[in-house]
Request: fold
Amino acid sequence: MSQHPNEKAYFGKFGGQFVPETAMFALIELEKAYEEAKKDITFQEELTYLLKNYVGRETPLYYAKNLSEYYHHDIYLKREDLNHTGAHKINNALGQVLLAKRMGKKKVIAETGAGQHGVATATAAALLGLECEVYMGSVDIERQKLNVFRMELLGAKVIAVEEGLKTLKEATTAAIQSWVGEIETVFYVIGSAVGPHPYPKMVKDFQSVIGKEAKQQIEALGKYADHVIACVGGGSNAIGIFSAFLDDSTTKLYGVEAGGYGIDTDMHAATLSLGREGIIHGMKTYVLQNQYGQISPVHSISAGLDYPGVGPEHAYLFETKKATYAPITDKEAMDALLLITRKEGIIPAIESAHALAYLEKLCPTLSKDRPETIIVNVSGRGDKDMHTVFSILKGEKYE
Ligand SMILES: *Cc1c(COP(=O)(O)O)cnc(C)c1O
Reply:
């Protein structure tokens, strides 16, 4: 059986295009433009050039010697934290903004939670000379003042969303509404492998550079990956690194979700662990919802994992057991952040610390006879999280 969508919009029964009729035009136009761009050597060369010279790819696959000694297995870190703007999100934002420009659009819009995707999109828009508007919940605007300022400095307009809980879910809904209103001139840059077709496939393609590099890098060492671990919010860094290993049944894949205060509480974002099939933001996937199908409020210490849905391909990989998904709590993630910081001198993003924390679960289950090779995707760097880490460690609010 193949991991590819059985019909072009679907991964098994997940995915699709659950959008108003007016948006169908734009999705069809987008799919056509994207298929053309994929085959256009000039487009691909420009993207490759920017990924190399602007983003700083390829990122290293770093052998974490101290961590390997600690866990008695060979641990390699894929260093997406070293990308320009500090995370993997720029791979996708550059790809989509370059496509928007190719399509002759004048303006891009984006949704953002913590502001990382907003910053990546504003960066790409500044570079490529497009107007940029970012929708952000007003609660998140208050929590992430520095990122709001970065976006404004880059020339983007940040639009406050006052609906509902005033966070990412509402910002996404507002961005979709605004896009439908201006569909001819505006390109909607989605920040994860979510949304209606063709977004999940397109975002996967733009992030698959992570997996391609990691596979080549581990093979260049004469090794192969026994295990690959990544955190899952919407699932773009995870599907990006998984993509190169999906056809290889010897490599085991792990997606780590936000366990928040614990999955026995209602303060988490463990969508695949505890969600049910439903529809959110134009796609059929797993959704955290109550018995009436209302989408549940979610919690994670890391804003990037704080989402009540998940990319449709992850729902498919979960149901077909091609990947394993597990929750990591806020506390386990913080403990891992401290461990990796002290052992390797690398301060990871709290999202990435969830993936690193999974070593604590996985390694004790492995045979001690031979060291196994484990790749962990370090999706981003911790700079953006310093105020959160400070307030936890010092027990006071840092502003
Ligand atoms: C946004 C973000 C994530 C989560 O997004 P995915 O689409 O699941 O990859 C993970 N890590 C970092 C550093 C992020 O900024």
About this structure: The chain has a mean pLDDT of 94. The CA atoms of residues 193 and 201 lie 7 Å apart.
